[in-house]
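Methods — Computational structure assignment.
A single polypeptide chain was analysed. Its primary sequence is given first, followed by the predicted tertiary structure written as structure tokens.
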Amino acid sequence: MRIMIFIEGTTFYTKPLLFLFTKYGYKPIGNAVSIVNTLYGKGYEIYLCSYVRKTRYAFIKSVVDFYGMTYTEILCRDKGETYSEIVEQIKPDILIEDDCKSIGGLRSCCITDVKEEIKADIQSIIVPEFAGIDSIIID
């Protein structure tokens, strides 16, 4: 089973200004690291999707690795690429993301513009921004 999880706002809180330059600008929300590591340990494929572009892949990888989160792959957009295109490429069974309250709400979510025939096969879980994933139960 493939699980795609958005990083910023869903599993990590980002501190203003600092998050652009240092891993200390990211702080795990609740038990996010433990939850993701447990899912990975159970054999789930974990795809972490980041706000940063591919040109900053090394940075976001250093953040995730610093906190000890395990994953299958970290996904970042190329210039001109949308989140929905990434979702359509990965075709996760479950997509976990926040409600994007601070950047325009649900219209900004990864799942919003995914093609209907692909969206139909994805369990979309949207949590309040910066509330974390502690309440999510995946068997």
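Note: The longest helix spans residues 32-41.
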